[in-house]
């Protein structure tokens, strides 16, 4: 018998991107991301402004997602939304919208953990080969840096995490001192030149087990830049490419060393990376090379699914829908949601 397809509306509003996506089973029909520009002048996300922008964007973004997917709201089977972690005011916009829309449509809601979604983004798409369990999920974003053993869709164990800043935060804060716009990660990546990446050397922190640390690195970059700018006010201007290249080279070295350590320790050779920093061109290239040399099965998301997006929320929604893991309307958003 022909089974009716499942249409999931995914909603993501945990930080500064308002996003809505429609999935037909595991296939993405639309994925609309409205990136908030209001934060640029502040050099980082201003939580109050983020909530107001989500409030403005949520209805147009959802309408466009439905229109681009060429379906009606009454076709939807369920609404999946980010429950956390993230900025509470931002999360509340997505969850309140999802709850009211679901009541109007009389369909279930599904709360999704944003970090699980970055990992499960690899299950998007009908045709692709997917990672097989167990695999190592490496989440590298602006708010989190985690090493996770993924035993099943909803059975994940965090074995390592940053003890201080996230890797994306390190990119952004180093970029800020160089006068780059927020988020600085993509800007640093654009300026990166492998031939200029050893001009300045910054320390690789020694952190035990699967954990990581980026604040010592960040402080050493900031101190180095300040000290040299006192001697020569044009130091940054004259050395921007060398500075960006050396920063990116060291940050990617820190994370790749830890990934190699994690694979060796756990003996899990299937690795799936996710989160905004996995858009980084040098990280993608370097990991592909290491994976080839060591016979790892490496999964790197399409660029569209690296930074925050609602398609990854939708795919988790789909897998929860299959298992009937629905949420109650009383589900609370949580800035520090655990899994
Ligand atoms: O996953 P994401 O969109 O949001 C969070 O959940 O935090 O990640 C955003 C982070 C920012 O820190 C941004 O600078 C970083 O991802 N990022 C990059 C690149 N593209 C985005 N970092 C390095 N290289 C990139 N190409
Ligand atoms: Zn994220």
Draw up the topology in text:
Elements: E1 7-12, E2 17-24, E3 27-35, H1 47-69, E4 78-84, H2 88-105, E5 109-113, H3 114-120, E6 135-140, E7 145-152, E8 155-161, H4 167-177, H5 184-191, H6 215-231, H7 235-266, E9 270-274, H8 281-294, E10 297-299, H9 311-322
Helix pairs in contact: 1-2, 3-9, 4-5, 4-6, 4-7, 6-7, 7-8
This protein binds 5'-O-[(R)-(carboxyoxy)(hydroxy)phosphoryl]adenosine (KG4) and zinc ion.
Protein architecture, described:
- This protein is of the alpha/beta class and 339 residues long.
- The chain has a five-stranded mixed beta sheet, with helices on both faces. Strands 8-7-6-9-10 form a five-stranded mixed beta sheet, sandwiched between helices.
- α1 packs parallel to α2, α3 crosses α9 and α4 packs antiparallel against α7.
- It is globular.
- The site of 5'-O-[(R)-(carboxyoxy)(hydroxy)phosphoryl]adenosine has 19 residues, from α4 and α5.
- The site of 5'-O-[(R)-(carboxyoxy)(hydroxy)phosphoryl]adenosine (KG4) has 19 residues, from α4 and α5.
Short description:
The protein has 339 residues and is α/β, with parallel strands linked by helices.
**Main β-sheet: number of strands, strand sense, barrel status?**
5 strands, mixed
- As a whole number of angstroms, the C-alpha radius of gyration is 20 Å
What is bound: which ligands? Answer: 5'-O-[(R)-(carboxyoxy)(hydroxy)phosphoryl]adenosine, zinc ion
Mean pLDDT: 96
The percentage helix is: 40-55%
Number of helices: 9
Quaternary organization: single chain
Strand fraction equals 15-25%
Number of strands: 10
Q: What is the 3D form?
A: globular
Series of secondary-structure elements, N-terminal to C-terminal: EEEHEHEHEEEHHHHEHEH
Strands in their spatial order, largest beta sheet: 3-2-1-4-5
SSE-based structural type? alpha/beta
Poorly predicted spans:
none
